[in-house]
């Protein structure tokens, strides 16, 4: 097909020598990367998703996504999901519709695996990456809030309507929310290892999330706090998401954007998931020797606006847990490998209570281990907890 197109272009140029070259599809570099943008149904984020797509289209039009094909799976209603490819043609970004799914239910392992297999069959590539735009609540399982929805009095951050809006992993109600473990299993089932997974969602830069995904992606790009409803600044960051991915500039550009944003708050971190087993081994040694004093919770760096706090800075927690200098030095060295890039504004914003909170300790990852919240009661069942504690047959911590 490529030879035919080039032949036709050559023949036509003999007769239309005055044509502008933009009248013809320019020859692009060979595709070596397929970027998957997954936007599951979320009623209060649809208009923002549309703007995010427009930003990506601007990047395509400005030739910032060379040698990369972009496939978007966006649920446009509770009953429909569109899969389309974003392409460059005659100086513009165009959308080639690929598949229309008669549902927006991508909460099961089988459904997500089917979606990924469809994408690979249509747009194969040596490298894949995944961007997920939705609400987020870290590692917490969907059941954590679904089972207590009628009983709880507190309003979750994604349900707030007062003040600036922020962005579960999925929609606002359980039927459109996805467990991180489900995503990990689906990617593994599809045999589609990701170069990076970028969560354009709140609270997803947690050590528990990263550990769940360590076998299906090399890097995790995410925010340890809430991210504003606008989401990731795709147009500005697009050049650093393809080719040889520039994680350092990605962080710098994100910080620059949010430092001058209407709500000047932003946090971001890059986790090298290949270093997490080494990190878990050190934390396991620390947990063998020390137990956290719950009376110290008030002194920890919080990363949310919930009461009780659900997400604490992971590095700050370990520094207050571990009293062995040698172990702490080993931990800090491994953290530099596990989180090579991170940055933040002086404060973070939480829609939970419409508050601005100062950041005095920042490792780029959070943990829920010391949390007293009933929503984090399942923490001992996480893969991270299991890997970093001595567990007996009843899945309890051995003192």
What does this structure look like?
The structure is a single chain. The chain is built from twelve helices and 13 strands. The relative contact order is 0.12. The strands form three sheets. It has a nine-stranded mixed β-sheet with strand order 4-3-2-1-5-6-7-8-10, sandwiched between helices. Strands 9-13 form a two-stranded antiparallel sheet. The protein is an alpha/beta fold and 399 residues long. Helix 3 (109-122) crosses helix 5 (180-189) and helix 9 (276-289) packs antiparallel against helix 11 (325-338). Helix content is 31%, strand content 20%. The protein is globular, with a radius of gyration of 22 Å. Helix 2 links the parallel strand 1 and strand 2 (68-77). It starts with a helix and ends in an 11-residue tail after the last helix. The chain has helices spanning 2-15, 46-61, 109-122, 142-146, 180-189, 207-213, 234-237, 247-259, 276-289, 314-321, 325-338, 383-388; strands spanning 33-39, 68-77, 80-89, 92-101, 128-133, 194-200, 217-222, 267-272, 312-313, 341-344, 347-350, 355-358, 366-367.
């Amino acid at each position: 097909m490529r030879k035919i197109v080039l032949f036709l272009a050559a023949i036509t140029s003999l007769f239309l020598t005055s044509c502008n070259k933009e009248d013809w599809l320019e020859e692009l570099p060979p595709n070596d990367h397929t970027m998957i943008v997954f936007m599951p149904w979320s009623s209060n984020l649809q208009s923002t998703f549309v703007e995010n797509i427009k930003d990506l289209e601007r990047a395509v039009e400005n030739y910032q996504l060379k040698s990369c094909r972009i496939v978007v799976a966006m649920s446009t209603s509770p009953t429909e999901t569109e899969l389309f490819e974003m392409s460059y043609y005659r100086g513009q970004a165009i959308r080639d519709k690929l598949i229309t799914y008669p549902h927006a239910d991508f909460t099961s392992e089988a459904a997500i695996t089917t979606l990924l297999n469809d994408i690979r069959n249509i747009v194969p590539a040596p490298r894949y990456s995944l961007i997920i735009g939705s609400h987020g609540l870290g590692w917490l399982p969907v059941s954590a809030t679904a089972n207590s929805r009628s009983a709880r009095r507190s309003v979750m951050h994604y349900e707030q309507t007062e003040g600036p809006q922020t962005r579960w992993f999925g929609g606002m109600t359980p039927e459109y929310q996805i467990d991180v473990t489900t995503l990990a299993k689906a990617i593994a089932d599809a045999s589609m290892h990701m170069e990076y997974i970028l969560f354009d969602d709140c609270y997803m830069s947690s050590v528990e999330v990263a550990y769940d995904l360590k076998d299906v992606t090399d890097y995790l790009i995410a925010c340890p706090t809430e991210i504003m409803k606008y989401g990731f600044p795709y147009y500005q960051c697009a050049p650093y998401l393809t080719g040889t991915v520039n994680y350092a500039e990605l962080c710098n550009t994100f910080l620059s954007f949010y430092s001058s944003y209407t709500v000047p708050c932003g946090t971001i971190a890059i986790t090298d998931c290949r270093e997490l087993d080494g990190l878990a081994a050190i934390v396991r040694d620390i947990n063998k020797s020390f137990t956290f004093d719950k009376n110290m919770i008030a002194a920890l760096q919080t990363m949310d606006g919930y009461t009780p706090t659900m997400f604490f800075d992971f590095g700050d927690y370990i520094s207050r847990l571990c009293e062995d200098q040698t172990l702490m030095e080993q931990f800090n060295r491994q953290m530099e490998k596990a989180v090579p890039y991170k940055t933040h504004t002086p404060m973070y914003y939480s829609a939970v209570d419409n508050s601005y909170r100062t950041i005095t300790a920042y490792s780029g990852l959070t943990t829920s281990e010391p949390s007293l919240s009933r929503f984090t009661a399942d923490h001992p069942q996480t893969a991270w907890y299991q890997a970093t504690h001595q567990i007996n047959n009843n899945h309890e911590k051995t003192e």
